[in-house]
Amino acid sequence: MADNAPDQESDYESGGTTSSGRGPLRGMRNRGGGPSGTGGPHLRRPARHGAPSEQIDKELLRQLDNEEPLSIAEELDKAAERVRRSGGAIAKATEPDQNIHIAELQQLSTQELLEIAESEGVENTAGLKKQDLIFRILKERVKLQGMMVGQGTLEILPDGFGFLRSPDYHYLSCPDDIYVSPSQIRRFNLRNGNTVSGTIRPPKENERYFALLRVESINGEDPNKLTKKIPYDDLTAVHPDVRIAMETTPEEVAMRVIDLIVPIGFGQRGLIVSPPRAGKTILMQKMARSVLKNYPDAYVMMLLIDERPEEVTDMEREVKGPNCEVISSTFDEPPSRHVQVSEMVIEKAKRMVEYGRDVVIFLDSVTRLARAWNSECPPSGKVLSGGLDANAMQRPKRFFGSARKVEEGGSLTIIATALIETGSRMDEVIFEEFKGTGNQEIFLDRKLVDKRIWPAIDIDRSGTRREEMLMDPEEHRRVNVLRRVLSEMNAPEAMDLLTTRLGKTKSNAEFLMSLKD
């Protein structure tokens, strides 16, 4: 259970100093220090007693606030004693069927939320944004039903506190974010990217955010039963040796070509090098659908940076599932937003790998991410060709370099696109910086696009390092025979021949067995 209130009250009473006595808090008014705003807590202590007509048990909330942050397991022991003292009031507030799940409301459309608000008597809803509407509905419901259950991905701000962000809003700051106190972060050793679930309370007077009361799970596991996890940077990186089969149906020729020419393994660091309008986004979309279909336990994250809004909508409709997220920051967003969303995605992926999960990130594109970092990083005074700052590539390389297969279990796979032939010298420099950092490269060729040959993959230039670790020895031998034959043709002829032959067989295995030595 969280002790959000004690942290705030000590700040109120001490005139805005931290619990460690380090002096006044920075950004007291407007930067998010407590549930009361985006900054530090207000100096005035909030009212502790509600009107008698309110149906919230104020005494109960005060008891919950003034205790140490507990997990669900520790809370069970204290619950019985509190029930005996309160005559059953707490039991009523914490019954499972009385819990309100914020995530369920976040999945609804604005029209559905308006209908719910009207049916539940929420007033003055005209013109409200979706996030504000959810906030109003939750405040109305908690008066009638008691406790709420919230979940989100933790983002820790520089001042030490944090908020649980929702992937449904692409990790943007929203009114229904959940405040997490510094004491909770310290006790449970929480880090950026942890998925935290627990009981929350509504905002008090002069507060703006819901606050976490009790931590029930961290990354889906009981926080009291967790063994100490090894930090991601200390995990042992090894070559990918478990293959990700992209082949799904005989008609999906593009995925069958990738399985033959550029096999992908869990932990791969792949780069799709493409000129504009060569089909890179559609190729990534098909790859994501294949992973979701063939590996239901893998977690897929589509990260779209500086993309068009209609592309985001199409991706959300085409790539979906219980273990899938489509996170975006469109071209009309500032570079700081591109940077923030990319950091949230990579930190969440790292935390999942620490728990032994297989995570696959599709990034479109690493070129635009590098451009965003070039705008946001402090100037070093050294400018490379094309206007690229010398320090701008450090964070994008760290993002891309995070992909690895780890010996202790789990993997992080990153397939990113890099733009070439855009007419921008900066884009060429960015590609040169990333060239050779991956262990797989897929080159898309404009000549194939002009002749309407799909997928527009240049077979000779594309390949995977240590591909023999991902293939059966006999399969690898036959693929080498195929490559020798196709290398004697130009790129359009080679791909046209390959797709035609694949279309006559029902699987890659049947196609390879039909090859003659």
UniProtKB/TrEMBL annotation:
Known role: Facilitates transcription termination by a mechanism that involves Rho binding to the nascent RNA, activation of Rho's RNA-dependent ATPase activity, and release of the mRNA from the DNA template.
Record keyword Metal-binding present: no
Protein's name according to its UniProt entry: Transcription termination factor Rho
Region (Disordered): 1-56
GO biological process: DNA-templated transcription termination
PROSITE patterns per the UniProt record, alphabetical: RHO_RNA_BD
Lineage: Bacteria, Pseudomonadati, Planctomycetota, Planctomycetia, Pirellulales
Quaternary structure annotation from Swiss-Prot or TrEMBL: Homohexamer. The homohexamer assembles into an open ring structure.
Biased composition annotated in UniProt, kind: Gly residues: 30-40
Domain Rho RNA-BD residues, every copy: 147-222
Keywords for this protein: ATP-binding, Helicase, Hydrolase, Nucleotide-binding, RNA-binding, Transcription, Transcription regulation, Transcription termination
Binding site for ATP: 265-270, 277-282, 308
SMART domains: AAA, CSP, Rho_N
GO cellular component: cytosol
GO molecular function, one term: hydrolase activity
Its EC number(s): 3.6.4.-
Biased composition (Acidic residues): 1-12
Family designation: Belongs to the Rho family.
Pfam families: ATP-synt_ab (PF00006), Rho_N (PF07498), Rho_RNA_bind (PF07497)
UniProt xrefs under InterPro entries: AAA+_ATPase, ATPase_F1/V1/A1_a/bsu_nucl-bd, CSD, NA-bd_OB-fold, P-loop_NTPase, Rho-like_N, Rho_factor_ATP-bd, Rho_N_sf
Superkingdom of the source species: Bacteria
